[in-house]
Amino acid sequence: MTNLNDLQKTLSQLLSDVEQQVTFRKQQLFVVGCSTSEVIGEKIGTSGTLEVAQVIYDELKNFAARNELYLVFQGCEHINRALTMEAAAAEKYHLEPVHVVPVNTAGGSMSAYAYTQLENPVVVESVQAHAGLDIGQTLIGMHLKVVAVPIRTSIKMLGQAVVTVAITRPKLIGGVRAKYETN
User: How far is it, in rounded angstroms, from Cα 60 to Cα 133?
Assistant: First the structure.
């Protein structure tokens, strides 16, 4: 079994690495896809654990508070990767809630746990988040803005799960005469 203390410390370091490289704007959306099964070394969707979800959630909650972000938790394929988030965030971004409650077997442990911890949780079908963290190759790209840019961190694995961090940026449009920086 994965040591939960080690897991917390590793995630803390990963998020610290992100904070050293990225300046977030207040109330941006930060999407999290997480297979707790992969974290403990099992095949995605087979051995979800609320204990692992709790450790990850607690660390992400602190990260979000420091950076004034809205956390958005991607569910699994059994709820079409719908996302659990605070109702205030859904309202701010004009997202229509859908009717489903994520559970371990349909939504995944991370999304299910987040649903029980958020102040006023809702589930929406999709978002275009400003940044995100993918733990266990859950494919969060569908919920990021169009131009995603990977962030390299010193942490490549969380437990036994591959981790990927991405931010987004506006599209660069124009041609050879276009200018992208202001003087």
Answer: 10
Would the pTM count as exceeding 0.85?
yes
Alpha helices in the chain (DSSP H): 4-21, 36-39, 50-67, 87-92, 109-117
- Token pair in block for residue 143: 């919920």
Q: Name which of 1-10, 108-117, 158-167 the model is least confident about.
A: 1-10
Buried b (16+ CB within 10 A) or exposed e, 106-117: ebbbbbbbbbee
At 53-73, the pLDDT tens digits run: 999 999 999 999 999 999 999
Question: How many alpha carbons fall within 13 Å on the CB side of residue 174?
Answer: 7
69 near 30, Cβ under 8 Å? yes
